[in-house]
Amino acid sequence: MSTTLQWTAEGATVVLEIDVTPTEGYESSAEVTKHPVDQGGAISDHVRANPDTLSIEGVISNTPVRIPASQTRGLTRAAANVDVRVGREAVQVQLQQWSGTLDRVRDCDALFAGLVGSGTLLTLTTSLRTVQNLVLVRYRVDRTADTGNALPVTLDLERVRIVSTARAAVPALRNLRVPENRGAVAPVPSSSTADRLTNALAGLPVVGS
């Protein structure tokens, strides 16, 4: 099974093809509340979906059976006649040869390592699904004497939930001025009280006393 990862870097689209992926894993999970739920209530309000996770185990080689569509450094491959000695005889066989030195293993290793922790959104395409908005959270390589110069990779990806925000105009609010507190104001005497005080000072009889 062939698998490709695609992303955008500096305005250009980058495609990385994994030669073969013997193992693909897709996981979707959710968490349910541990508290009691009222009968008749909406159960969906008490279930929270977790981000989807994916795992890929694949191999990248400098001698792929099929010509890869990416990370070939612009090289081409064509048939060439090569003399091979079998015992005392020379036998001519036809092999596929690259027009230059191909090192997809080193190039792909550098790309994977740079994606971890970069926050780059990836699109994964396999024979089963196409999943967008993925982030590479783990990259592992296990090379042994049996793998030779190939690059056996393990990729763990997690899907990011992308939401859109909307802006709405807020109506203008009137500038309300808070009244200034000037302290207690002395009461103004009524006219009848003022008249009595004036008459008392003038020695006149006070009416209504």
Any overview of this molecule?
Helix content is 11%, strand content 39%. With 209 residues, it is mostly beta strands. It has a domain at 3-31 and 46-73 and 100-159: Elongation Factor Tu (Ef-tu), domain 3, CATH 2.40.30. The chain has a 7-stranded antiparallel β-sheet. A hairpin with a 4-residue loop joins strand 9 and strand 10 (130-141). It is elongated.
Q: Round the Cα radius of gyration to an integer and report it.
A: 41 Å
Annotated CATH architecture of the domain at 3-31 and 46-73 and 100-159: Beta Barrel
Count of DSSP-assigned helices: 2
CATH topology of the domain at 3-31 and 46-73 and 100-159: the name is Elongation Factor Tu (Ef-tu), domain 3
The class by helix and strand makeup works out as mainly beta
Distance between the termini: 114 Å
By CATH reckoning, the class of the domain at 3-31 and 46-73 and 100-159 would read Mainly Beta
Largest sheet: 7 strands, antiparallel
